[in-house]
Amino acid sequence: MNTIRTLAVWCPDWPVIAAEIVDGVAATGLVAVMHANRVLSVSPAAREEGVFRGLRKREAQGRCPDLVVVEHDPNRDARAFEPVVAAVSELAPGVEVVRPGVLLLAARGPVRYYGGAEVAAERLVEHIAQECGVEAQVGIADGTFAAVLAARAGRIVEPGETAAFLADLNVAAIARPALVDLLRRLGVRTLGEFAALPAADVLARFGFDAALAHRRAAGDDDLPLAPRQPPPELAVSENFDEPVERVDAAAFAARALAERLHAGLAGHGLACTRLGIEARTEAGEELHRTWRHDGLLSAAAIADRVRWQLDGWLTGSGRRARPTAGPTAGPTAGIVHLRLIPDGVIADGGLQLGLWGDAGAERDRAHRAMTRVQGLLGPAAVLMAVPSGGRSPAEAVRLVPWGDERTPERPVEPPWPGRLPAPAPATVYPDPLPAEVHDAAGAPVTVSGRLKLSAPPAHLTVDGADEEIVDWAGPWPVDERWWAPAEAYRAARFQLVLADGRAVLVALAKGRWHVEALYD
């Protein structure tokens, strides 16, 4: 797959700049923007005093007693960033906002139009400075992930050299703190070292999100989220009898539209990764903006982005030196039409409607019926399956009474060494069936402490019935709670294919074989 050459525009320390634009806090002073009692962004002057991102508020103030603390406001950041997006849109089409302070677009158009990557980058930086009075950096590379990092470094990476550019960067660039901490403890310090790990091992050990980060570290970040063009009927719109001019009224309308859009996508088993926002004013002005997200946009996330965008359009207070008129000025009248378009969607395997639907009279009748059964037979008479973490199929699902909180017994996401690969068995026996496994000579098959089989398994005996084994896989070792002798459990699991076409999951524990599950 050919990765698209991407141009990224990055405005350094944007939360600090936005605080200056909207609230008048001087970005040249000692300023820190806080979120959840930690430093989110700092001004250059505060950075020189030893204040950096991630520092706790008390420690930051201890290092810099004169520090001006500003609470983070996503609405402020988005409102101030809108004129920057508008300024870039004047020179190049197809702008996608990743977050306030960062935007992306395909590099081919502006590079060809302005006669080179360097000229295009200089033109964009100069135009942003003239129109908005803010500093910006431009980077070009293969793919969105590398382009953003190139913008932070102010570099233009030549085609085909993205992997080499990423290789020497700190592994913290993947922006996943828990994974970064684990990789550092394992001795992985750079993106190149992370990319050198086998992809299959990364997926098995760390999970899907880490596998996605691994692809990006290798310079290939477009394939996992490759959006496809959605059916046009998934877009939602709303007409307003009275023009909307206040941000609070616009936010209310945005929330309702976002829920409609998310519900429509969920009904098709889809989730949004790129959101198009269109508006028409009473004066006939047409407004459009695209927001991009690396993950899946929830209803709340969609509503947030629509609210931020409408705030930016309606207030138009995002320039340090705002011109009295010009192409980047905001709309001159209230909004009478709003439309949300899922420009990019992917299949979302986590979305599944209930058997009786998720809303309406059918759901209410089902709830009443199940509550009635529980009243007659007890709470345990109606159970719900809740995905849970674990290594065996029996541990992967937790049964809880209807109406109780659906919380997993163990975390689902963390890696589980020794966990069985997909697909999962269709039938899991509550009480494993005693069994015997013999080799071709009729001798019992054993497994040593180093997981070496005494001989290949050839026959499986369950309840006196002997079945020939035509294929097998394993062992998958399990060594749990070895530090607590009373709770310790050691076993070796195997998948066996029988002559009649059935496949079973068996385990050898404490010298005895058992059939744990049956595959379809």
From TrEMBL:
PROSITE patterns: UMUC. Transmembrane segments: none annotated. Residues 31-155 form the UmuC domain. Pfam families: IMS. One of its GO terms (biological process) is DNA repair. Keywords: DNA damage. Poorly processive, error-prone DNA polymerase involved in untargeted mutagenesis. Copies undamaged DNA at stalled replication forks, which arise in vivo from mismatched or misaligned primer ends. These misaligned primers can be extended by PolIV. Exhibits no 3'-5' exonuclease (proofreading) activity. May be involved in translesional synthesis, in conjunction with the beta clamp from PolIII. Belongs to the DNA polymerase type-Y family. This is DNA polymerase. The lineage of its organism: Bacteria, Bacillati, Actinomycetota, Actinomycetes, Micromonosporales.
